[in-house]
User: Fold this.
Amino acid sequence: MRVAVLGTGVMGAGMVRSLRRAGIEVNAWNRTKDKADPLADDGARVCASAADAVADADLAVLMLFDTDAVLEVMAEALAAAQNGPVWAQCSTIGLDGTAQAADLASRFGAPFVDAPVLGTKQPAEQGTLVFLAAGAEELRARVAPAFDAMGSRTIWVGEEPGRGSALKLVCNSFVGTLTAAVGQSVGLATQLGIDPQLFLEAMDGGASDSPYVHVKGGRMIEGEFPTSFALDGVRKDLGLIREAQRRSGTSTVLADAVLACFDAAARQGHGSQDMAAVVHAFRDGPAAPGAAGFAG
Assistant:
């Protein structure tokens, strides 16, 4: 099996390495070639163009930032695909973007799987992503070896493209809200002069606790934000979530508030940092007495 991975940023690079560990041949391409070049050390063939990457591939995996990028790359590469690869669209591009990508694939007669993933940098590197997939049942066996190499499990949502992306929006609405909530608590503790580490200790083991609270809360307390999921990426996803809410008749009240928090942090210059940098949205007010020293 040969897989073309189109987009080797934070997520795509980890996916390439997971595929190679499983012995799967990989063609890697990225618009900025410097980001793909190190993958040659992992045994991937680094390609100069998306068209070159898919020419001999059995599966093309798209892991790009947004709808425009996905459609542009697909338009270039679809005509060059010789072996009739399955196209697995793993980027988070929402309902309209997925419909456009599926339509583009259909015009070329290309089999298409809507397959966004849950997980960030570390799960991508470890091969423990969760695939939220939708596509024709006969395609499942064709994508299984690659999905199994890159992920811990695949949840098949249905055969209609868009169902996987719908579930991804549902999940990301929770992740974004939870991250903002942790930022609010860490920020409030700091402003009140309480060591925010005590917040994590108080939550530890309780019904509302989760490993995620400690991972992101720890980053917020340390004030270090190496990117696993960029804050600007969350803002993009929250926009897609609000559009899905409007279309479905779901209230956008909470999504509006959460997006406002991420927007505030972005205005302070944290857009390229990890989403945990949303904590800065809650540190605009004057610090309470004794709060100095706990802020990141």
